[in-house]
Design brief:
Structural class: mainly beta
Distance between the termini: 41 Å
Strand order of the largest sheet: 1-33-34-35-36
CATH topology: Methylamine Dehydrogenase, Chain H
Number of domains: 1
Radius of gyration: 22 Å
CATH superfamily: YVTN repeat-like/Quinoprotein amine dehydrogenase
Shape: globular
Number of helices: 2
CATH class: Mainly Beta
CATH architecture: 7 Propeller
Helix content: under 10%
Number of strands: 39
Strand content: 35-45%
Protein backbone atom coordinates (compact mmCIF):
# COMPACT_ATOMS: atom_id res chain seq x y z
CA UNK A 1 0.00 0.00 0.00
CA UNK A 2 1.35 3.40 -0.96
CA UNK A 3 1.83 5.84 1.93
CA UNK A 4 1.37 9.56 1.13
CA UNK A 5 4.58 11.59 1.11
CA UNK A 6 3.49 13.76 4.04
CA UNK A 7 2.90 10.68 6.18
CA UNK A 8 6.08 8.97 5.02
CA UNK A 9 8.01 12.06 6.10
CA UNK A 10 6.32 11.95 9.51
CA UNK A 11 7.28 8.30 9.86
CA UNK A 12 10.90 8.94 8.93
CA UNK A 13 11.21 11.79 11.40
CA UNK A 14 9.63 9.68 14.10
CA UNK A 15 12.00 6.80 13.39
CA UNK A 16 14.91 9.20 13.63
CA UNK A 17 13.68 10.06 17.12
CA UNK A 18 13.63 6.36 18.03
CA UNK A 19 9.86 5.88 17.85
CA UNK A 20 7.81 3.54 15.69
CA UNK A 21 4.34 4.64 14.65
CA UNK A 22 1.51 2.13 14.98
CA UNK A 23 -1.91 2.07 13.38
CA UNK A 24 -1.25 5.06 11.14
CA UNK A 25 -2.31 3.88 7.71
CA UNK A 26 -5.33 2.15 6.27
CA UNK A 27 -6.87 1.20 2.97
CA UNK A 28 -8.47 3.10 0.16
CA UNK A 29 -9.08 6.82 -0.11
CA UNK A 30 -8.14 9.44 -2.64
CA UNK A 31 -5.46 12.08 -2.50
CA UNK A 32 -7.88 15.00 -2.71
CA UNK A 33 -6.91 18.41 -1.37
CA UNK A 34 -8.67 19.52 1.79
CA UNK A 35 -9.02 18.01 5.24
CA UNK A 36 -9.27 14.47 3.92
CA UNK A 37 -6.49 12.01 3.24
CA UNK A 38 -5.74 8.56 1.95
CA UNK A 39 -6.31 6.48 5.08
CA UNK A 40 -9.64 5.47 6.63
CA UNK A 41 -8.04 5.38 10.10
CA UNK A 42 -9.51 3.46 12.99
CA UNK A 43 -7.08 0.56 12.46
CA UNK A 44 -6.04 -1.68 15.33
CA UNK A 45 -2.80 -0.59 16.94
CA UNK A 46 -0.05 -2.69 15.35
CA UNK A 47 2.48 -4.44 17.61
CA UNK A 48 5.78 -2.55 17.93
CA UNK A 49 8.58 -2.03 20.40
CA UNK A 50 7.30 1.46 21.17
CA UNK A 51 4.69 3.77 19.77
CA UNK A 52 0.98 2.97 19.84
CA UNK A 53 -1.89 4.96 18.42
CA UNK A 54 -5.48 4.82 19.71
CA UNK A 55 -7.31 6.59 16.92
CA UNK A 56 -10.91 5.49 17.38
CA UNK A 57 -13.36 4.25 20.00
CA UNK A 58 -12.17 0.94 21.49
CA UNK A 59 -9.08 0.87 19.27
CA UNK A 60 -10.32 -0.55 15.97
CA UNK A 61 -13.23 -0.80 13.57
CA UNK A 62 -14.24 -4.12 15.07
CA UNK A 63 -14.60 -2.33 18.47
CA UNK A 64 -12.55 -5.05 20.19
CA UNK A 65 -11.09 -2.64 22.81
CA UNK A 66 -7.72 -4.38 22.65
CA UNK A 67 -4.25 -2.84 22.46
CA UNK A 68 -1.87 -5.71 21.72
CA UNK A 69 1.31 -3.60 21.64
CA UNK A 70 1.62 -2.75 25.36
CA UNK A 71 5.16 -3.70 26.45
CA UNK A 72 5.38 -1.66 29.67
CA UNK A 73 2.33 -2.50 31.77
CA UNK A 74 2.22 -6.12 32.94
CA UNK A 75 0.44 -8.09 35.65
CA UNK A 76 3.78 -8.19 37.46
CA UNK A 77 4.08 -4.41 37.85
CA UNK A 78 0.46 -3.16 37.91
CA UNK A 79 -0.04 -2.97 41.67
CA UNK A 80 -0.38 -0.24 44.27
CA UNK A 81 3.36 -0.22 44.92
CA UNK A 82 4.58 0.28 41.37
CA UNK A 83 1.57 1.75 39.56
CA UNK A 84 -0.64 4.75 40.28
CA UNK A 85 -1.88 8.22 39.41
CA UNK A 86 0.74 10.33 37.63
CA UNK A 87 -1.31 13.48 37.04
CA UNK A 88 -4.82 14.77 36.46
CA UNK A 89 -5.36 16.89 33.36
CA UNK A 90 -7.98 19.52 34.20
CA UNK A 91 -10.48 20.54 31.53
CA UNK A 92 -13.55 22.78 31.35
CA UNK A 93 -16.37 20.24 31.41
CA UNK A 94 -17.52 16.63 31.36
CA UNK A 95 -15.40 14.17 29.41
CA UNK A 96 -17.96 11.81 27.92
CA UNK A 97 -15.84 10.85 24.89
CA UNK A 98 -13.02 8.32 25.15
CA UNK A 99 -9.61 10.06 25.08
CA UNK A 100 -7.57 9.32 21.95
CA UNK A 101 -3.78 8.99 21.74
CA UNK A 102 -1.02 9.39 19.18
CA UNK A 103 2.66 8.58 19.46
CA UNK A 104 5.38 10.68 17.81
CA UNK A 105 3.12 13.58 16.87
CA UNK A 106 5.40 16.19 15.35
CA UNK A 107 4.82 19.55 17.05
CA UNK A 108 7.25 22.27 15.94
CA UNK A 109 9.57 19.51 14.74
CA UNK A 110 9.54 17.60 18.05
CA UNK A 111 7.86 14.17 18.28
CA UNK A 112 5.48 14.06 21.27
CA UNK A 113 3.10 11.54 22.73
CA UNK A 114 -0.25 13.32 22.72
CA UNK A 115 -3.61 12.63 24.32
CA UNK A 116 -6.72 14.30 22.87
CA UNK A 117 -9.67 15.20 25.10
CA UNK A 118 -13.12 16.53 24.09
CA UNK A 119 -15.60 18.07 26.54
CA UNK A 120 -19.28 18.93 26.76
CA UNK A 121 -18.26 22.61 26.66
CA UNK A 122 -17.35 22.16 22.97
CA UNK A 123 -13.65 22.31 23.72
CA UNK A 124 -10.95 20.01 22.38
CA UNK A 125 -7.55 19.73 24.10
CA UNK A 126 -4.25 18.17 23.12
CA UNK A 127 -1.87 17.42 26.00
CA UNK A 128 1.70 16.16 26.11
CA UNK A 129 1.01 12.75 27.64
CA UNK A 130 4.47 12.53 29.23
CA UNK A 131 4.65 15.96 30.83
CA UNK A 132 0.99 16.89 31.16
CA UNK A 133 1.56 20.24 29.46
CA UNK A 134 -0.99 21.73 27.07
CA UNK A 135 -0.12 21.49 23.38
CA UNK A 136 -3.23 23.29 22.18
CA UNK A 137 -6.81 24.03 23.14
CA UNK A 138 -9.61 25.10 20.79
CA UNK A 139 -13.27 25.98 21.16
CA UNK A 140 -15.68 24.78 18.50
CA UNK A 141 -18.31 27.39 19.34
CA UNK A 142 -19.23 30.00 16.77
CA UNK A 143 -19.49 33.70 17.60
CA UNK A 144 -22.22 34.31 20.17
CA UNK A 145 -22.79 30.59 20.70
CA UNK A 146 -22.75 28.38 23.78
CA UNK A 147 -23.08 24.62 24.24
CA UNK A 148 -26.62 23.34 23.93
CA UNK A 149 -28.83 23.21 27.01
CA UNK A 150 -29.83 19.72 28.12
CA UNK A 151 -33.02 19.75 25.99
CA UNK A 152 -35.23 19.00 29.03
CA UNK A 153 -33.38 15.71 29.50
CA UNK A 154 -31.18 14.57 32.39
CA UNK A 155 -29.06 12.13 30.38
CA UNK A 156 -26.36 14.69 29.48
CA UNK A 157 -26.35 17.70 31.75
CA UNK A 158 -26.02 20.58 32.32
CA UNK A 159 -24.76 21.19 28.77
CA UNK A 160 -24.41 19.24 25.55
CA UNK A 161 -21.33 19.93 23.47
CA UNK A 162 -19.11 17.05 22.37
CA UNK A 163 -20.52 13.76 23.59
CA UNK A 164 -19.31 11.17 21.07
CA UNK A 165 -15.75 9.91 20.71
CA UNK A 166 -13.96 11.60 17.78
CA UNK A 167 -11.82 9.73 15.26
CA UNK A 168 -8.28 10.47 14.02
CA UNK A 169 -6.56 9.87 10.68
CA UNK A 170 -2.77 10.14 11.00
CA UNK A 171 -2.40 10.40 7.20
CA UNK A 172 -4.90 13.23 6.57
CA UNK A 173 -3.69 16.81 6.20
CA UNK A 174 -0.19 18.04 6.94
CA UNK A 175 0.04 16.57 10.45
CA UNK A 176 -2.95 14.26 10.75
CA UNK A 177 -6.58 15.20 11.36
CA UNK A 178 -9.06 14.79 14.21
CA UNK A 179 -12.76 14.64 13.23
CA UNK A 180 -15.36 15.57 15.85
CA UNK A 181 -19.06 16.49 16.06
CA UNK A 182 -20.09 19.42 18.30
CA UNK A 183 -23.57 20.62 19.30
CA UNK A 184 -24.24 24.28 20.10
CA UNK A 185 -26.95 26.92 20.48
CA UNK A 186 -26.74 30.40 18.98
CA UNK A 187 -27.97 33.74 20.33
CA UNK A 188 -31.28 33.29 18.48
CA UNK A 189 -31.81 29.91 20.22
CA UNK A 190 -31.15 27.94 17.06
CA UNK A 191 -29.42 24.59 17.57
CA UNK A 192 -26.48 23.42 15.49
CA UNK A 193 -24.71 20.11 14.89
CA UNK A 194 -21.40 20.54 13.07
CA UNK A 195 -18.66 18.20 11.88
CA UNK A 196 -15.17 19.64 12.41
CA UNK A 197 -11.77 18.63 11.03
CA UNK A 198 -8.87 19.79 13.24
CA UNK A 199 -5.14 19.71 12.52
CA UNK A 200 -3.57 17.30 15.02
CA UNK A 201 -0.50 19.44 15.69
CA UNK A 202 -2.20 22.84 16.02
CA UNK A 203 -5.95 22.33 16.53
CA UNK A 204 -6.66 24.64 13.59
CA UNK A 205 -9.80 24.10 11.53
CA UNK A 206 -8.89 22.67 8.13
CA UNK A 207 -10.33 23.79 4.77
CA UNK A 208 -14.02 22.99 4.50
CA UNK A 209 -14.42 22.77 8.28
CA UNK A 210 -16.80 23.00 10.01
CA UNK A 211 -19.70 21.47 8.09
CA UNK A 212 -23.29 21.97 9.26
CA UNK A 213 -25.11 18.64 9.61
CA UNK A 214 -28.28 18.59 7.49
CA UNK A 215 -30.25 15.78 5.86
CA UNK A 216 -33.61 14.63 4.48
CA UNK A 217 -34.93 11.13 3.81
CA UNK A 218 -38.02 9.88 1.95
CA UNK A 219 -41.02 8.56 3.91
CA UNK A 220 -43.84 6.20 3.08
CA UNK A 221 -46.46 7.71 0.76
CA UNK A 222 -44.24 10.48 -0.52
CA UNK A 223 -42.51 13.47 1.04
CA UNK A 224 -39.47 13.53 3.30
CA UNK A 225 -38.46 13.65 6.93
CA UNK A 226 -36.03 16.37 7.99
CA UNK A 227 -33.04 16.10 10.32
CA UNK A 228 -33.70 18.60 13.14
CA UNK A 229 -30.39 19.37 14.92
CA UNK A 230 -32.12 20.29 18.19
CA UNK A 231 -33.89 16.93 18.45
CA UNK A 232 -30.74 14.83 18.19
CA UNK A 233 -27.45 14.14 19.92
CA UNK A 234 -24.36 12.43 18.54
CA UNK A 235 -23.84 9.92 21.40
CA UNK A 236 -22.42 6.99 19.40
CA UNK A 237 -18.72 7.20 18.53
CA UNK A 238 -17.67 8.27 15.05
CA UNK A 239 -16.54 5.67 12.52
CA UNK A 240 -14.01 6.41 9.77
CA UNK A 241 -13.88 3.82 7.02
CA UNK A 242 -12.78 4.02 3.38
CA UNK A 243 -12.64 7.79 3.37
CA UNK A 244 -16.10 8.29 4.90
CA UNK A 245 -16.91 9.56 8.39
CA UNK A 246 -20.08 7.94 9.70
CA UNK A 247 -22.26 9.58 12.34
CA UNK A 248 -25.35 8.07 13.99
CA UNK A 249 -27.88 9.89 16.10
CA UNK A 250 -29.93 9.50 19.26
CA UNK A 251 -32.75 11.39 20.94
CA UNK A 252 -32.93 13.36 24.16
CA UNK A 253 -34.71 11.12 26.71
CA UNK A 254 -36.88 9.56 23.99
CA UNK A 255 -38.67 12.91 23.53
CA UNK A 256 -40.44 12.73 20.13
CA UNK A 257 -40.26 13.30 17.31
CA UNK A 258 -37.04 11.46 16.43
CA UNK A 259 -36.02 8.74 13.99
CA UNK A 260 -32.91 6.68 13.20
CA UNK A 261 -30.37 8.70 11.21
CA UNK A 262 -27.03 7.42 9.89
CA UNK A 263 -25.11 10.06 7.94
CA UNK A 264 -21.86 9.70 6.02
CA UNK A 265 -19.47 12.56 5.23
CA UNK A 266 -16.52 12.70 2.86
CA UNK A 267 -13.25 12.79 4.78
CA UNK A 268 -11.75 14.81 1.92
CA UNK A 269 -14.34 17.61 1.77
CA UNK A 270 -16.69 17.07 4.76
CA UNK A 271 -19.60 17.07 2.31
CA UNK A 272 -22.45 14.75 3.24
CA UNK A 273 -22.26 11.75 0.91
CA UNK A 274 -24.65 9.16 2.35
CA UNK A 275 -27.96 9.07 4.25
CA UNK A 276 -29.94 6.22 5.76
CA UNK A 277 -32.83 6.41 8.17
CA UNK A 278 -33.67 3.11 9.89
CA UNK A 279 -37.05 4.43 11.11
CA UNK A 280 -38.14 6.91 8.42
CA UNK A 281 -41.85 6.51 9.16
CA UNK A 282 -41.56 6.52 12.93
CA UNK A 283 -42.33 9.19 15.49
CA UNK A 284 -40.38 7.85 18.46
CA UNK A 285 -37.38 5.90 17.35
CA UNK A 286 -35.48 3.80 17.14
CA UNK A 287 -32.49 5.97 17.89
CA UNK A 288 -28.82 4.91 17.83
CA UNK A 289 -26.76 5.49 20.98
CA UNK A 290 -25.09 2.24 22.18
CA UNK A 291 -23.89 3.81 25.46
CA UNK A 292 -21.20 5.63 23.52
CA UNK A 293 -20.19 2.67 21.38
CA UNK A 294 -19.64 3.28 17.68
CA UNK A 295 -20.80 1.41 14.59
CA UNK A 296 -18.38 -1.37 13.64
CA UNK A 297 -17.13 -2.20 10.14
CA UNK A 298 -15.96 -5.44 8.51
CA UNK A 299 -13.27 -5.96 5.88
CA UNK A 300 -15.80 -5.47 3.08
CA UNK A 301 -16.94 -2.10 4.43
CA UNK A 302 -20.28 -3.28 5.80
CA UNK A 303 -21.41 -1.42 8.94
CA UNK A 304 -22.89 -3.04 12.06
CA UNK A 305 -24.83 -1.43 14.87
CA UNK A 306 -27.52 -2.05 17.48
CA UNK A 307 -30.68 0.05 17.29
CA UNK A 308 -32.71 1.11 20.32
CA UNK A 309 -36.38 0.56 21.15
CA UNK A 310 -38.88 1.93 18.68
CA UNK A 311 -40.99 1.09 15.66
CA UNK A 312 -40.53 -2.28 13.96
CA UNK A 313 -42.73 -3.45 11.11
CA UNK A 314 -43.79 -7.00 11.93
CA UNK A 315 -45.32 -7.20 8.45
CA UNK A 316 -42.44 -8.28 6.23
CA UNK A 317 -41.88 -8.02 2.49
CA UNK A 318 -41.06 -10.98 0.25
CA UNK A 319 -37.40 -10.81 1.27
CA UNK A 320 -38.17 -10.92 4.98
CA UNK A 321 -37.47 -7.22 5.61
CA UNK A 322 -39.81 -4.82 7.47
CA UNK A 323 -42.30 -3.54 4.91
CA UNK A 324 -41.83 0.12 5.78
CA UNK A 325 -38.13 0.05 6.65
CA UNK A 326 -38.47 0.59 10.43
CA UNK A 327 -35.89 -1.39 12.47
CA UNK A 328 -36.42 -1.05 16.21
CA UNK A 329 -34.37 -3.27 18.58
CA UNK A 330 -32.28 -4.80 15.83
CA UNK A 331 -28.75 -5.86 14.94
CA UNK A 332 -28.20 -4.26 11.54
CA UNK A 333 -25.77 -5.03 8.73
CA UNK A 334 -25.61 -1.99 6.47
CA UNK A 335 -24.06 -2.21 3.03
CA UNK A 336 -22.13 0.73 1.62
CA UNK A 337 -21.94 1.06 -2.14
CA UNK A 338 -20.97 3.64 -4.74
CA UNK A 339 -23.80 5.48 -6.42
CA UNK A 340 -26.47 8.02 -5.65
CA UNK A 341 -27.37 11.45 -6.94
CA UNK A 342 -26.99 15.05 -5.81
CA UNK A 343 -25.19 15.34 -2.47
CA UNK A 344 -25.36 11.55 -1.99
CA UNK A 345 -22.31 9.96 -3.67
CA UNK A 346 -22.75 6.52 -2.15
CA UNK A 347 -25.68 4.56 -0.83
CA UNK A 348 -26.44 2.86 2.47
CA UNK A 349 -28.98 0.06 2.73
CA UNK A 350 -29.86 -2.61 5.27
CA UNK A 351 -28.33 -5.76 3.78
CA UNK A 352 -29.38 -8.10 6.61
CA UNK A 353 -30.63 -7.89 10.18
CA UNK A 354 -31.72 -9.71 13.31
CA UNK A 355 -34.67 -8.66 15.49
CA UNK A 356 -35.81 -10.64 18.54
CA UNK A 357 -39.20 -12.33 18.31
CA UNK A 358 -40.59 -10.28 21.21
CA UNK A 359 -39.43 -6.91 19.85
CA UNK A 360 -42.81 -5.23 20.18
CA UNK A 361 -43.12 -6.17 23.87
CA UNK A 362 -39.53 -5.17 24.62
CA UNK A 363 -39.88 -1.79 22.88
CA UNK A 364 -43.10 -1.10 24.77
CA UNK A 365 -41.23 -1.47 28.08
CA UNK A 366 -38.06 0.41 27.00
CA UNK A 367 -35.94 -2.76 27.00
CA UNK A 368 -33.81 -1.68 24.11
CA UNK A 369 -31.04 -3.70 22.55
CA UNK A 370 -29.41 -0.40 21.60
CA UNK A 371 -28.15 0.28 25.14
CA UNK A 372 -25.17 -1.92 24.22
CA UNK A 373 -22.71 -1.86 21.35
CA UNK A 374 -21.81 -4.23 18.51
CA UNK A 375 -18.48 -6.10 18.55
CA UNK A 376 -17.19 -8.10 15.60
CA UNK A 377 -15.50 -11.30 16.73
CA UNK A 378 -12.51 -12.58 14.74
CA UNK A 379 -13.13 -15.39 12.28
CA UNK A 380 -13.78 -18.64 14.16
CA UNK A 381 -14.17 -22.29 13.18
CA UNK A 382 -17.18 -24.15 14.52
CA UNK A 383 -17.36 -27.79 15.58
CA UNK A 384 -18.18 -28.84 12.01
CA UNK A 385 -15.11 -27.10 10.61
CA UNK A 386 -16.95 -24.16 9.06
CA UNK A 387 -15.58 -20.64 9.41
CA UNK A 388 -18.04 -18.31 11.14
CA UNK A 389 -18.17 -14.53 10.94
CA UNK A 390 -19.95 -13.36 14.08
CA UNK A 391 -21.20 -10.14 15.63
CA UNK A 392 -22.14 -10.03 19.30
CA UNK A 393 -24.46 -7.65 21.12
CA UNK A 394 -26.41 -7.30 24.35
CA UNK A 395 -28.83 -4.75 25.79
CA UNK A 396 -31.30 -4.33 28.61
CA UNK A 397 -33.00 -7.73 28.36
CA UNK A 398 -30.06 -9.64 30.02
CA UNK A 399 -29.35 -11.85 26.96
CA UNK A 400 -26.21 -12.05 24.82
CA UNK A 401 -27.00 -12.39 21.11
CA UNK A 402 -24.37 -14.01 18.88
CA UNK A 403 -25.35 -13.44 15.26
CA UNK A 404 -23.90 -14.96 12.09
CA UNK A 405 -23.00 -11.97 9.91
CA UNK A 406 -23.51 -14.10 6.76
CA UNK A 407 -27.06 -15.13 7.75
CA UNK A 408 -28.36 -12.95 10.55
CA UNK A 409 -31.75 -14.50 11.13
CA UNK A 410 -34.12 -11.58 10.45
CA UNK A 411 -37.45 -11.56 12.36
CA UNK A 412 -39.58 -14.58 13.19
CA UNK A 413 -42.51 -14.32 15.63
CA UNK A 414 -42.08 -17.99 16.57
CA UNK A 415 -38.57 -17.49 18.03
CA UNK A 416 -35.06 -16.23 17.39
CA UNK A 417 -33.33 -17.88 14.43
CA UNK A 418 -29.74 -16.92 15.25
CA UNK A 419 -26.40 -18.64 15.76
CA UNK A 420 -26.47 -18.51 19.57
CA UNK A 421 -28.39 -16.83 22.38
CA UNK A 422 -27.05 -16.93 25.93
CA UNK A 423 -30.24 -16.25 27.87
CA UNK A 424 -30.09 -14.34 31.15
CA UNK A 425 -26.30 -14.15 31.08
CA UNK A 426 -26.21 -10.51 32.18
CA UNK A 427 -28.65 -9.87 35.07
CA UNK A 428 -29.19 -6.16 35.49
CA UNK A 429 -28.83 -5.53 31.77
CA UNK A 430 -26.19 -3.80 29.66
CA UNK A 431 -25.61 -0.05 29.41
CA UNK A 432 -22.04 -0.46 28.16
CA UNK A 433 -19.89 -2.01 25.44
CA UNK A 434 -17.91 -5.27 25.59
CA UNK A 435 -14.26 -6.16 24.92
CA UNK A 436 -12.60 -9.20 23.36
CA UNK A 437 -9.15 -10.74 23.90
CA UNK A 438 -7.55 -14.11 23.24
CA UNK A 439 -10.69 -16.23 23.07
CA UNK A 440 -12.60 -14.38 25.78
CA UNK A 441 -15.48 -11.88 25.67
CA UNK A 442 -15.83 -9.44 28.59
CA UNK A 443 -19.11 -7.80 29.66
CA UNK A 444 -19.85 -5.43 32.56
CA UNK A 445 -23.59 -5.37 33.38
CA UNK A 446 -25.32 -2.99 35.79
CA UNK A 447 -24.92 -3.90 39.43
CA UNK A 448 -22.93 -7.02 38.55
CA UNK A 449 -19.32 -8.15 38.43
CA UNK A 450 -17.34 -7.85 35.21
CA UNK A 451 -17.70 -11.25 33.53
CA UNK A 452 -15.48 -13.23 31.16
CA UNK A 453 -17.15 -15.65 28.70
CA UNK A 454 -14.87 -18.02 26.83
CA UNK A 455 -15.31 -18.74 23.13
CA UNK A 456 -14.75 -22.26 21.76
CA UNK A 457 -15.93 -23.71 18.43
CA UNK A 458 -17.44 -20.30 17.66
CA UNK A 459 -19.76 -20.47 20.68
CA UNK A 460 -19.79 -18.60 23.98
CA UNK A 461 -19.73 -20.43 27.27
CA UNK A 462 -23.15 -20.45 28.90
CA UNK A 463 -21.62 -19.31 32.20
CA UNK A 464 -18.74 -16.89 32.83
CA UNK A 465 -15.32 -18.50 33.12
CA UNK A 466 -14.37 -15.89 35.72
CA UNK A 467 -15.70 -12.65 37.18
CA UNK A 468 -14.41 -9.69 39.16
CA UNK A 469 -14.56 -9.77 42.97
CA UNK A 470 -16.83 -6.73 43.17
CA UNK A 471 -19.85 -5.42 41.25
CA UNK A 472 -20.08 -2.21 39.22
CA UNK A 473 -22.87 0.31 39.89
CA UNK A 474 -24.86 1.88 37.04
CA UNK A 475 -24.18 1.94 34.20
CA UNK A 476 -21.88 -1.05 34.66
CA UNK A 477 -18.49 -0.81 32.97
CA UNK A 478 -17.00 -0.70 29.46
CA UNK A 479 -13.71 -2.62 29.68
CA UNK A 480 -10.50 -2.17 27.69
CA UNK A 481 -7.61 -4.60 27.19
CA UNK A 482 -3.84 -4.17 27.17
CA UNK A 483 -1.46 -6.98 26.26
CA UNK A 484 1.85 -7.73 24.54
CA UNK A 485 0.53 -9.93 21.78
CA UNK A 486 -1.18 -12.80 23.60
CA UNK A 487 0.87 -12.26 26.78
CA UNK A 488 0.49 -10.02 29.83
CA UNK A 489 -3.23 -9.44 29.31
CA UNK A 490 -4.86 -6.90 31.63
CA UNK A 491 -8.54 -5.89 31.67
CA UNK A 492 -9.09 -2.26 32.68
CA UNK A 493 -12.47 -1.01 33.92
CA UNK A 494 -13.73 2.32 35.28
CA UNK A 495 -16.25 2.46 38.11
CA UNK A 496 -18.86 5.24 38.12
CA UNK A 497 -18.59 6.21 41.80
CA UNK A 498 -17.42 9.11 43.97
CA UNK A 499 -14.50 8.95 43.94
CA UNK A 500 -14.20 7.17 40.62
CA UNK A 501 -12.24 3.91 40.69
CA UNK A 502 -9.93 2.49 38.03
CA UNK A 503 -9.68 -1.31 38.27
CA UNK A 504 -7.14 -3.66 36.66
CA UNK A 505 -7.69 -7.44 36.45
CA UNK A 506 -5.72 -10.38 35.16
CA UNK A 507 -7.28 -11.06 31.75
CA UNK A 508 -6.91 -14.82 32.27
CA UNK A 509 -8.82 -14.71 35.58
CA UNK A 510 -10.94 -11.72 36.55
CA UNK A 511 -10.98 -13.04 40.11
CA UNK A 512 -7.42 -11.69 40.39
CA UNK A 513 -7.61 -7.94 40.88
CA UNK A 514 -4.17 -6.50 40.22
CA UNK A 515 -4.93 -2.93 41.23
CA UNK A 516 -7.65 -0.41 41.99
CA UNK A 517 -7.23 3.28 42.63
CA UNK A 518 -8.64 3.00 46.17
CA UNK A 519 -5.84 0.67 47.30
CA UNK A 520 -3.12 3.28 47.83
CA UNK A 521 -2.85 4.90 51.25
CA UNK A 522 -4.13 8.41 51.96
CA UNK A 523 -6.18 8.57 48.75
CA UNK A 524 -3.01 8.90 46.68
CA UNK A 525 -4.68 7.72 43.48
CA UNK A 526 -8.11 9.35 43.82
CA UNK A 527 -8.75 11.23 40.60
CA UNK A 528 -12.22 12.76 40.71
CA UNK A 529 -15.92 12.03 40.41
CA UNK A 530 -16.99 9.10 38.28
CA UNK A 531 -18.77 9.50 34.98
CA UNK A 532 -20.97 7.09 33.03
CA UNK A 533 -19.99 5.27 29.85
CA UNK A 534 -16.26 5.84 30.46
CA UNK A 535 -13.84 3.64 28.53
CA UNK A 536 -10.18 3.67 29.66
CA UNK A 537 -7.54 4.27 26.99
CA UNK A 538 -4.24 2.37 27.32
CA UNK A 539 -1.16 3.28 25.30
CA UNK A 540 2.62 3.28 25.78
CA UNK A 541 2.61 2.50 29.47
CA UNK A 542 -0.17 4.90 30.44
CA UNK A 543 -3.87 4.63 31.18
CA UNK A 544 -6.20 7.59 30.57
CA UNK A 545 -9.59 7.82 32.31
CA UNK A 546 -12.19 10.56 31.83
CA UNK A 547 -14.12 12.18 34.70
CA UNK A 548 -16.61 15.01 35.05
CA UNK A 549 -13.85 17.63 34.70
CA UNK A 550 -10.54 15.94 33.89
CA UNK A 551 -8.63 13.08 32.37
CA UNK A 552 -6.55 11.11 34.87
CA UNK A 553 -3.22 9.71 33.70
CA UNK A 554 -1.99 6.51 35.37
CA UNK A 555 1.31 4.72 34.88
CA UNK A 556 4.35 3.26 36.58
CA UNK A 557 5.52 5.41 39.47
CA UNK A 558 9.03 6.86 39.24
Amino acid sequence: MKIPFRHALTRLLALAAGTVLAGCAGTGGTGIAGPGGTSPAGESARPSQSGTDVLTYKNDRQRSAQNLSEVTLKPSNVDATHFGLLRNLQVDGKVDAQPLFTSALLVDGTPLEAVFVATEQDTVYAFDADKGTLIWRVTLLGAGERPSDNRHCSQVRPDIGITSTPVIDRAAGAHGTLYVVAMSKDRLSNYHQRLHALDLATGAELPGSPREVTATFPVRGGGTTLFDPGQYEERAALLLDRGTIYTSWTSHCDIPPYTGWILGFSEATLERTAVLNIAPNGHAGPAIWMSGGGPAADAAGNLYLLSANGDFDTTLDSGGFPRNGDYGNSVLKIQTAAGGTGPTSHTLRVLDYFTMSNEVAESATDRDLGSGGALLLPDMTDAAGSVKHLVVGAGKDTNIYVVDRDSMGKFHPDGNHIWQEVTGALPGGIWSTPAYFHGTLYYGAVGAPLKAFTVANARLSSEPQSQSPSAFPAPGTAPSISANGAADGIVWASENSNPAVLHAYDAANLGVELYNSNQAANGRDHFGTGNKFITPTIADGKVFVGTTNSVAVFGLLR
